[in-house]
Amino acid sequence: MSMLSELWSFGWKRLANFRPDDVILFTHVSSLISKEVLLFLKLYDGYPEPFYFKLRPLMFTFWKQIKSDVSLKLVPFKPLGCTFQFIVSLCDYKVMKLFTNKCIHDVHQKALFEKNHWAVQDWIIGDEYSFSGWQCNLCCRDDCVQTKIKTDEWVLKNITASLTFSHKLPNMSVIETILGSKNSSYIKDFNIIPKSDPFYAP
Known about the structure:
By secondary structure, the chain is of the alpha+beta class. The chain contains eight helices and nine strands. Strands 2-8-4-5-9 form a five-stranded mixed sheet. A four-stranded mixed sheet has the order 1-6-3-7. This is Beta-1,4-mannosyl-glycoprotein 4-beta-N-acetylglucosaminyltransferase. It comes from Stegodyphus mimosarum (African social velvet spider).
């Protein structure tokens, strides 16, 4: 989180021509936000903020979905967003205040912001029936995954944060290998979903 704060502090000063209603998103490389949601945020204003996204946690080419009764331990970072006006007026340009929800502690500033702009209220976009995007751990074609995890070294450095999986793959699909692995403790937390599912993939 401190690294993100430093990157923001370093980066925003090198950009110009911000508009008050410009939307700023803080997200993870494995979080895929729906293009329809992004278009809505781009075209409209006046919605409450900060806003968060209800993502569908998936893995392996969108083939398995996390069970609803399991904690979201496979979501490494919950994306959120706000307008430039919000982070300037209420957070004093500090993303740590945004992430810890301390931007609205000043009641006077909050009231002033709402009087001149729009509502300050946590807003979650989407629900368990209509997601606003996908949280994808290792979502790519099977041969892509096979190429990347041929060696124990790559697995130990890059995958163990998401999967307890650290052995060389035989000549079978990645999915078959992990389903048959005694070390794949997360697999039991997922359900197989059909490709006909309306939220199968972006």
